[in-house]
Amino acid sequence: MSEEDTTTKREKIPRQPMPEQDAKTRARNFEEVPLGYSRETAMREAERCLQCKNPACVGGCPVEVDIPGFIRLIKEGDFTQSIRNLWSRNSLPAVCGRVCPQEIQCEERCILAKKGDPVAIGNLERFAADYEREHGTGALPPIAEPTGKRVAIVGSGPAGLTVASDLIQKGHEVTVFEAFHKPGGVLTYGIPEFRLPKAIVAQEVNFLERLGVKLVCNQVVQRTVMIDELFEEGYDGVFIGVGAGLPTFLGIPGENLVGIYSANEYLTRANLMKAYRYPEYDTPIIRGRNVVTLGAGNVAMDSARTALRLGAESSRIVYRRSRAEVPARNEEVHHAEDEGVEFFFLAAPGRFIGDDKGRVVGMECIRMSLGEPDASGRCRPVPIEGSEFELECDLVIVAVGAGANPLLTKSTPGLELNKLGYVKVDEKTGKTTKKAVWAGGDIVTGSATVILAMGAGRVAANSIHDYLTWGW
Q1: Count of beta carbons in the 10 Å neighbourhood of residue 468
Q2: What does each C-alpha distance from 417 to 271, 304, 410 come to in angstroms?
Q3: 8 Å CB contact between 235 and 250
Q4: Is residue 335 a contact partner of residue 308, using CB atoms and an 8 Å limit?
Q5: pLDDT digit string (tens) for 101-148?
Q6: pLDDT tens digits, 256-289
Q7: DSSP code of 238?
Q8: Rounded to whole angstroms, how far apart are CA atoms 193 and 199?
Q9: What is the pTM (predicted TM-score) of this model?
């Protein structure tokens, strides 16, 4: 069969769907929604990859995974080598296979997307990682000879874990300092169990510990230990990856009523503090009957879907723009709708209504129309005079973004910040204005995706390695 005939045959293979829990069933449990590929399904999907000589998909990946390479190995049934290929560029494949927006990154650039469905790169990445966890040998990638250099990483989110993985494999001694009692950062406290099981995060972290990364939890840097003290203790470089965890509110009347959470607090209580496992964990959390979530990003979808699983009779999302402007992944919106989340597009809150006990019982909204594009490039929402309406609610989750937490940044001498409080860095290296200190992830860019934070970690790790090898 000619190469042209082989290509045509591959193009005719339909994209293999990922099996999922039934929507009505999963809306009331915290078990993972997508169920994963079987060996046969993964190999069939991998067969669709055309093995392009100049793969555009790789250019769409912030950590430049060898996408055709690991997919070819799956097609051949060599799952062990497939995960090793992935590990060479990505230390968190089980996480990325679940939560990365492949549809606007690697899969968007797949040549098959020009005429139909792209290769399911994310699903295949997840398969390779899951297969290794369930059936693998446990063998680790090679580690370079010790260099004698020590690096401290502040924050164990995706950026910090990527830096740790890269540097430990280059022979440097790495210690990660985490403020919470569990590692993983936003992977642990922010993303719900039904989208990213905590056992998966723990397994990825354990992989790094097996490589030799030291993990110190319950350490709030710039409180229990100062960055300058880390240098005094013998660390040669510091990476800051503390995320952007400062809640953003709307500043409208009634926002201090009981029953109004920031998404950050709500999801932290549900995830890190395990409110979803009541009564095993009796974490205080308001379990609303009529829940409204403000915003339409991935965090809003996570919040609205969590509310259903915690017993809400109705879970609604109020968003001031139209569906076309929704920033959440299409998959997350699809899952939310299937589970019964109701969307109120082109609507914005004006004030919250409370009862005589100071508890929220409703919200006054106003309908919006879309005007000219604003600084973000999206059409600016404009209130429609006289269109006010009320929604009954006993729990409101504000998921309209997060700001830079100033706890570390504003107490670190020599660390320059921008006007929004984020750390200023050299985009090509991740270097900050403080010598031997790098930063990356949400504390630099503001709230973004897991894979973009990992990409920033990769950039910083390369620069740190150069510094440790050759000097500033």
Answers
A1: 20
A2: 31, 33, 8
A3: no
A4: no
A5: 999 999 999 999 988 999 999 999 999 999 999 998 888 888 999 999
A6: 999 999 999 999 888 877 766 766 777 778 889 9
A7: E
A8: 9
A9: 0.90
